[in-house]
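Appendix B. Chain record.
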Amino acid sequence: MLASALAFSLMGVCVKALGGRLPVAEVVLARAVVSLLISWWMLRRSGLDAWGQRRGLLVGRGMLGTAGLYCVYLALTGLPLAVATVLQYLHPTFTALLAWPLLAERPGWRVWGAVLLGFLGVAVLVAPGGGGAAAGSALPALPLLFALAGALLSALAYVSVRALRRSEHPLVVVFYFPLMALPLSLPLVLLQPVAPTGPEYGWLLGVGVFTQLGQVALTYGLMGMAAARATAISYVQVPLAALWGVWWFQEAVPARAGLSALLVLLATLLSLRARPVPASGSASS
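Structure tokens predicted for this chain:
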């Protein structure tokens, strides 16, 4: 989960570096092509059946992930990198709430504490005057809504990954993500094609490679520990995004970023110490 947070934070850098000139569908398509080729190669090398067993749920996971990806990319183009990442990382809260009824995974007090600390870190950073924009100015409404929608869709996708853990290999789950993203994005690209420049091809390749690395690490992490605990660990992406925003884009760090990063770090450490809580019934898979 820590490796996935690092990879996804670098993916955010690549999306932000594209500058919003290319349509979001084109970014999603490029990511899908790169990831699909890498996933197919990894599956062939491992001798695995690419199509899996629970294909309906695999398709659903891919569609949820693709919809969430669109929302995340749209948020990244309209918000500072740190703010967009922080809002996306409301998903551990959503995941903890959804995993209890859907997976029968009851979070322990440490996980709830980690979720609360992470949520407070989010609230500190996006409060009026603390979101990285000019003091007293509000965040733009539409990118804000996209970020929140992306968090909810990500949580649903992560719960579905956890549900697939007993029937599917992680590489098969990863494969279905670009497999769904490709047909969902290609028609939109054909309607409004924009030729990338040389540097943009490099950033698009980075989007695909870092997203693939993040998805592989994320899927193994979610299949190895309870969903709420796993996603609480990934809060560490928040301070990473703030760091990249300063280094790469000279984005001003909000005055409250230090407190936000501290809360996120405490959330991560607390979730690492959490132990699974026995549930009354086993999770469906």
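Further analysis of this model is presented in Appendix C.
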